[in-house]
What we know:
CATH class of chain A: Mainly Alpha
CATH class of the largest domain in chain C: Alpha Beta
Distance between the termini of chain C: 44 Å
Oligomer: heterotrimer
Largest interface: A-B, 58 and 73 residues
Shape of chain A: globular
Amino acid sequence: MNTSTSVSATRTAALAGGFRWRVVDIVVASVLGVACGFLFLAWNVGYLGPKALLEPLLPGVQGLLDGPWLIAGVLGGLVIRKAGAAIFVETVAAVVSALAGAQWGGFLTIEAGLVQGLGAELIFLVFAYRLWTLPVAILAGAGAAIAGGINNMLLWFVGSDAAFTTVYMICTTVSGAVLAGLLGWVLARGLAATGALDRFGAGREVRTRV
Amino acid sequence: MTLLESRARTGGMARINPVAKLGASGLIALPLIFTLDMVSAAVALALECVLFVFAGVGWREFWVRTWPVWLAAPLTGVTIALYGQSGGTVYAEWLLVRISEGSLLLAGATMLRVLAIALPSVVLFITVDPTDLADGLAQTWRLPARFVLGALAGLRMVGLFIDDWHALQLARRARGVADRGRVRRFLGMAFALLVLSIRRGAKLSTAMEARGLGSPVRRTWARPARFGTAEWMLLLIGAAISAAAIAAAVWAGTWNFILGPS
Amino acid sequence: MTVDTRPATVEARGWGWRHSSRIAWALRDVSLRIEAGERVLLLGASGAGKSTLLHGLAGVLGGAEEGEAEGRLLIDGTPATAARGRVGLVLQDPDSQVILARVGDDVAFGCENLGVPQEEIWQRVDDALDAVGLDVPLDRATKALSGGQKQRLALAGSLAMRPGLLLLDEPTANLDPEGVVEVRDSVERMLQRQRSTLIVVEHRLDVWLPLIDRVVVIGEGGVIADGSPDRVLEVEGERLAEAGVWVPGHPPQHPAAPASAPGESLVSARGLAVARARGTMVADGIDVDVRAGSVLAITGPNGVGKSTLGLTLAGLLPPAAGQVTASEGLGGGAGAHPIRWSSRQLLTRIGTVFQEPEHQLLAKTVREELEIGPRSLGLPDAEITARADELLQRLRLDRLARANPYTLSGGEKRRLTVAAALATRPQVLVLDEPTFGQDARTWQELVAMLAALRDEEGAALVAVTHDLDVVAALHAERFTMGSGS
Lengths: 210, 262, 485
């Protein structure tokens, strides 16, 4: 029947992804950003405890705690699926965190967000904004972690030695891959299943057609 | 919390274009990023304290908002003290930890630096009204209006989050799942809140489109953002503070450019 | 002061729309013509596509990736997608239409997007607020407004754009009776000032009929009926009432009166004072009894604390003063104070259904949702499955057993949350605005079910409600809150 071919044609066109952001893309990206911003705020305080425990064990192992600050970019990219989504969502989350008075100062918090978002964005770009699978998500999380890690080294851990640097970079990359990449992917799928993402490709591909 | 309030604060700083505040906090932070030494950080911090008096922030509020900074600074200092580059006499060492004269100096400098960079940003930011910030970003910096306004709308949904949270808690008690598993319940509630917010966000975006957002017509602004004397003054003050800090460090010979050879 | 807006003409020629996530067309073969200045009421069964038509006219349905259109939809001869700015759209949910934090800024938003010169914007804002009769200062926080005020704000925001066509998509569905009247009066006042073309979609007709010249009914195959209100309602009235529209003259059926008198008091309150948050008391000196086999209706104006009282009786909120005591039969080993019962102990004693179903959705599928309560009680698996099956069937949710609860329609979500509360067979059921925003058919079903619970199972029901029809239909004992309760 005619409908099925025209339907699949529309679908492929949709999956190719446009580059122009719709208003709903911007607003939902902002909502995700604000929600992640809250997560950042909670973790800004919450990480201090585990950090105090982990630090004396091995220098640099506190990198394992970096993951939660990286999830915004990965989640943004997976849900919105447009160029710039990862940077935008991570930056909005950083702005929220900064507006509420983050301890690293407004300007640098936002700068960190931009850099981390860029890390995830580059991975999505490498896959031409077409692949949104779990491995890509994990790589994006790792990418954000590496970018953020370098940023942190340059800004805050400038006087550290080689051992610290190595351990830290490895730990933060692992944290990014798991806590941001894997968790981000799981969260995106969970959201899509509720039907909240029906206006997005992420939602349409998960829900069976009725 | 400014995030949730719609009125701008009172005080000298309140009506300055938020973009200028952003710029000022950037100007103060930038040189301090490039160097790591006690003198520049201390000078900057001292001058900033003078600035805070005029910021229009209450004494109590200052401490309430900045306590994370006061907590984080010494903790960062401890990290550097334990694992930083060593130099001079070594006071203690075990495993990978090495506390030396050099690392202690670096720790002190780092602490002051954190304070000097973070405090003015916090103070400047808590006097910012989100709608004015959006106006400033879109008009003064010419960021695309759709993005700035869409982000502002998403940000506004914050107030609604909190009302829902209490209802979500009560609902869980009524359904028999509130006795154990606090973390799991918290995550469940957070997820439900996220779904609700995305839903509302999608409806809001339809309303915004219906009011013409995103049309090809060139947008006008009901609240023009100004960038006048007061704004330039603030930027000048920011530049002056960082210039003074750099000058003091160079004069004292302690300038320590982090990106060059150490 | 009269405002100069040219009313728009609307024309649809065989128009249809299909969402890309669906196979079936939301709407098909719609052909009609609306002249400038006409006031049209659009009716049809739930899911007939009325909202879709309004969204199409406003040009907000989305592009090729979101769906497919056929036919033509024209406003003043130009396609609807290109006519943004000529059309104002007011939606159903008051909270999702507030764009900016201050009243004046929110109304000015549309003007800014249309490129209106700055000096003119604030003049238009004043005119628009005046036209809807919203008398609040321009820097009032929008989140401090009531539901009715928010809807009027949305109306003002659309009016400031000077639209030729005004579309109202169930503007009063989420409002209490006071808000409904406020909004309707605003629309009437606005229409007296200017001649816009108006299309309204609503379930409750009695409120809107006096303002309307023409009624159009859409459904399977496009436009089913079209003409003057009296004529269309005479012909289609019965069919529409069955489809869920509140047609005057075709009220929904009320269940029979209870056969037996109320039984013992299961929950009683003496000298009770209730508070939403610690310290802010809203009402005090309350003495009520919740009796088995009867319905207690808590009524009163907005903000007086009805929901708070309901939740306090349900053992969810602590009393600010006084006591809420459960009878021996109800409390049993758990003690006499519901607030001290554990969450699990509450399950078999007092169930609560919240006003907003989405606050109560916990599981990934409908079946799982029904199983949460029994599972928490530690019942054997066979029993859990049996109870879930029974409820799925009784509430006609069996077709949806594996769907994600968030994807259900409004009425289905409501039935689901009631079923979930019933899964553990509580003796007392507290319902917060059970019939809020429901169409006539769901209303009838819900009321019949509540009556059955009351009669067959001897349950005690507490209903917090604005809806006086429910009070009458359930022969409820009425407890009015408010001045001098």
